[in-house]
């Protein structure tokens, strides 16, 4: 009967030496085979505690807390700007299991900034977004999209207060035309106002108020009419 030998998978020499080194406690800079370098604390041969990681390929740097080989706790991630030969901070805040998780601030390339809660590398929970245009959204997020209650203040002074779903205005909301001194209150579907009422609001403070006042709507129950209109529209969808 022939004898068959079980094929043995040979561990790369670099991995073998690394596993035998059993790094533990505070170490000077340790260089990996791929050129990455880490300076900081270790536990059971894994980055654990405070430390700084530099990625050779991208030049990015993470300085903060680690837990069993992954970014976990407070930390700052910065990227290298080749044209300026200097570092630019991208994210500063909490991490969990190697991902942005908790409260933190993220700096986008176009000068937009987000500060608020994160979950699994996504904006989720409460947060405030400063857009390059000057607009500011403050409210609830879910998986990187406006979702829930929120307020967006536009650079020109107008603002919208209401509910959002998947990044779009959905449900009841109020749009304040601060420049004209008017208020629109109604119902939105996928970012489009479907039915509502327009009334004068803050005309005395408005920089460019409308020439004429809006006539008063002579309805016994305005809200009841709006509810019926909303129900009729939703029934068609």
UniProtKB/TrEMBL annotation:
SMART domains linked to this entry: MORN
Parts forming coiled coils: none
Lineage top rank: taxon: Eukaryota
Subcellular location: Cytoplasmic vesicle, Secretory vesicle, Acrosome
Keyword match Repeat: yes
SUPFAM superfamilies, per the entry: Histone H3 K4-specific methyltransferase SET7/9 N-terminal domain
One Pfam family linked to the record: MORN
Main location: cytoplasm
Record's protein name: MORN repeat-containing protein 3
Any single GO CC term annotated in Swiss-Prot or TrEMBL for this entry: acrosomal vesicle
Record's function text: Assembles a suppression complex (suppresome) by tethering SIRT1 and MDM2 to regulate composite modifications of p53/TP53. Confers both deacetylation-mediated functional inactivation, by SIRT1, and ubiquitination-dependent degradation, by MDM2, of p53/TP53, promoting a proliferative and cell survival behaviors. May play a role in the regulation of spermatogenesis.
Signal peptide (UniProt feature, chain positions): none
Keyword annotations from UniProtKB, A to Z: Cytoplasmic vesicle, Repeat
